[in-house]
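Duplicate of #3305? Posting structure anyway:
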């Protein structure tokens, strides 16, 4: 009898990627029956998953009993939250705790939590406006405090943030951030590659229990990104560094400070903090498949 793998955010980038990768792996697809959690299974994305044999279950992350019912009978769970839906860390933390508590109540063998480092603690409070980092990290801490069998998946910088940073003109493209030209970023294609890392965790479950896995293809600088865009597009592309204040001022007020500090975290703390390069190098040994390269992402994300 197949075990149940329950995937939250089944119709989103990360959850959808997990389902795609598990279905594509013959060992995992025979070992696990997939259960996808979504707020509205009747939407086209939900129906498409159902046609692939995924059991669709409706659940509200803010409702403890709803989450508990959704997880019942699961052997493994992939948990993810979306801070940007509410712009509220307390809501995100409670949603994560609801998933964790349900996993503990049902004796789930493995909770794979989509986490991220705690920016406030990493920077000793210097960067204190990064709730979308800190909330996920606090859920990860809670999971471990509760002794729930788990592996924390720490996603890198989303490649999907690149197009929005490119200013286009007749003369060419300009990539603009508040990063040094040689600042290294751990870039990650969430929609394609989350599942490759999670499948790797499932395939090496006992070995990776209690561990952190970092999710990125590799380290790229703004100069690397500009050069790749130029190579793919054939248009002159340069990188322009702006000050932190200039960067914040150019963004909507609701997200300006938070995104400014996000890139400060990358610039001054290498995103993951000390030792991140070694942990990522080790994590890449477990990926089920080849992660998307920067050039591959740019080729599919045009026109530039």
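Output from current build:
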């Amino acid at each position: 009898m197949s075990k149940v793998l329950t995937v939250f955010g089944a119709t989103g980038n990360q959850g959808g990627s997990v389902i795609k990768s598990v279905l594509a792996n013959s060992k995992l697809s025979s070992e696990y029956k997939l259960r996808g959690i979504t707020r509205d299974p009747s939407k086209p994305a939900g129906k498409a998953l159902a046609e692939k044999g995924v059991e669709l279950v409706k659940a509200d992350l803010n409702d403890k009993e709803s989450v508990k019912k959704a997880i019942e009978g699961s052997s493994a769970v992939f948990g993810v939250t979306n801070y940007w839906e509410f712009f509220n860390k307390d809501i995100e933390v409670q949603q994560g705790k609801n998933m964790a508590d349900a996993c503990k109540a049902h004796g789930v063998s493995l909770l794979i939590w989509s986490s991220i480092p705690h920016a406030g603690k990493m920077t000793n409070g210097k960067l204190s406006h990064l709730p979308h980092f800190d909330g996920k990290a606090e859920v990860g801490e809670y999971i471990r405090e509760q002794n729930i069998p788990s592996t924390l998946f720490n996603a890198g910088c989303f490649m999907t943030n690149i197009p929005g940073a490119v200013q286009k003109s007749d003369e060419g493209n300009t990539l603009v951030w508040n990063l040094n030209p040689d600042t290294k970023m751990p870039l990650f294609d969430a929609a394609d590659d989350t599942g490759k890392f999670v499948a790797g965790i499932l395939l090496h479950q006992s070995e990776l229990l209690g561990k952190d896995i970092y999710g990125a293809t590799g380290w790229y600088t703004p100069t690397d990104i500009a050069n790749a865009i130029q190579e793919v597009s054939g248009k002159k592309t340069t990188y322009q560094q702006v000050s932190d204040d200039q960067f914040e001022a150019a963004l909507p007020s609701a997200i300006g400070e938070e995104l400014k500090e996000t890139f400060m975290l990358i610039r001054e703390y290498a995103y993951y903090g000390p030792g991140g390069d070694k942990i990522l190098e080790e994590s890449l040994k477990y990926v089920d498949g080849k992660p998307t390269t920067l050039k591959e992402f740019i080729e599919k994300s045009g026109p530039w």
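Confirmed duplicate; merging threads. The first helix runs from residue 13 to 24. The chain is about 45% helix and 20% strand.
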